Amino acid sequence: MKLYPLTFEPIFKERIWGGTKLKEHLNKSFDGNSIGESWELSTVSNDVSVVSNGEFAGLNLNELIEKFPNEILGEKSIEKFGLDFPLLFKFLDAKEDLSIQVHPNDELAKQRHNSFGKTEMWYVMQADTNARLVVGFKSKTNKQDYLSHLADKTLLTILNETTVKKGDTFFLETGTVHAIGAGVLIAEIQQTSDITYRLYDWDRIDSNGAGRELHNDLAVDAINYEETNTKIQYNKKTNDSVNLVDCPYFITNLLDISGTYQWKKKKESFTVFMCTEGSFLLNSENFKGNFKKGDTILIPAVLKEFEIIGETSLLEITI
């Protein structure tokens, strides 16, 4: 059985801050009005993605990697991360503000949770007027000042808020205090981890009158108190790959295609496409498949080249 470009059943997550944009903008199908996340490609425990297309439909990603480790992951990924699938891909719809939060680095996450840390990036797919993100401190601070502002509920006064528009891109290293603001639809690429420390949740309460759990005792040693520059500056190029992020955990390029583009693998690793705009045909000698905005496609490492035909914008992610 030959491998081919793989798609997966989305794993939907109901969130107190979620909405319906994943349905309205990305053609996702679900019930309810507060779906905050669509996990597109995951091997997080109890949330392992299941193949939705072709001969391997019904197998989950871990089962597929067990059958074809080198062919799926590639030498580069196995060399760095073993047989674990190292990344988690999501679309997020923030109808309301997410909590102000932080993620630990690999060392802390391993020590406390036997997990990877959570380096991540955001690509803004849609943003309402004046929608904003919270990303890092306005200037260098320290643990004492941070705790004082937290206690006084003035934390936002020392954090950097930035209004955003479609196409804005941010790279968040572990330790960066952050929050996605109301009205933002995001494609998120991150390490395979579900470790989040909430610092402040806007004093929200659920239907039972309870607030969500905060993790400030854990967070203080995970925070980077330096001023950080998280926004990525780039210029789009038609039918050319533009690098957005190149870090130890993933490389992300933006690929704007108009017409026909000959795609060739650059690394001995799997590649993932997240379609952020338009539609396209993926065409090779042994495969033809049509994809559209909101689709996430895993290209196994063994597949080396394709023709991409259409009017589309893709995030192209590899190791």
From TrEMBL:
Key words, A-Z: Isomerase, Metal-binding, Zinc
Name recorded for this polypeptide: Phosphohexomutase
Domain Phosphomannose isomerase type I catalytic per the UniProt entry, residue ranges: 9-115
Domain Mannose-6-phosphate isomerase cupin: 243-315
Top-level taxonomy: Bacteria, Pseudomonadati, Bacteroidota, Flavobacteriia, Flavobacteriales
Coiled-coil region(s): none
Gene3D superfamilies: Jelly Rolls
Pfam families from the UniProt entry: MPI_cupin_dom (PF21621), PMI_typeI_cat (PF20511)
GO MF annotation: an example: isomerase activity
InterPro entries attached to this UniProt entry: Carb_Metab_Reg_Kinase/Isom, Man6P_isomerase_Firm_short, MPI_cupin_dom, PMI_typeI_cat, RmlC-like_jellyroll, RmlC_Cupin_sf
Segments crossing the lipid bilayer: none
